Amino acid sequence: MNISVFIVNHVAENCYILWNGKGSEAIIIDPGMCNKRERDAVDRFIKDNDLRLKCVLLTHQHFDHILSASYLADKYGVEVQASKADNYLGERLPQQAADFGLPYECEPITVTHGLKDRDKIELNGEYIEVLEVPGHTPGGLAFYLAESGCVIAGDSLFRRSIGRTDLPGGDADQLISSLRKQLLSLPDDTVVYCGHGEATEIGEEKRLNPYILYY
Ligand SMILES: [Zn+2]
Questions:
Q1: What is the distance in A from the centroid of ligand 1 to the CA of 115?
Q2: Least confident of 6-20, 95-109, 134-148
Q3: In order of start, what are the domains of the chain with their CATH numbers?
């Protein structure tokens, strides 16, 4: 699987595009593009590579990960899929942005295609497995690509850090137990693509992440 990243909006969110070469199907994860320039860059990438967008996936429904979910759903006629446990967040998207003092023009979103633990989504013959990782938000998900040896972790796990749990719906004990059960149990050489910042590997985080070592 090819995994391309677009770093978008005021909090440098990683929007990922999964694809398999020119003319293949594609999935976009966490479309946080906040303006026309950022949306145009993603549209151009899709057009230049002749990609057919299959769906949009959300690791969770914090504003910085979902700002262009409706835009993509409308433009490409695709579904937005995520955990419905976070719908209370998507439904107050404008307020979430305002709470951070960010003047984005956006509408609330309501996810109707709910994803559950161990659901599988097919893309170009490879399976993406849904892992529930609540704690950063109640509906946090990670997307595991066993064949490619990587996981898109959203804001649950970062390089040497973990997601914040002080926002409404966050729960530190729950996040640590999600990480231990769902992510740290993956093979050590699994590459972790995070919601912000650089990628890491599961084995490295087991050895070096202070939140995992000392919590
Ligand atoms: Zn978040």
A1: 18
A2: 95-109
A3: 2-214 (3.60.15.10)
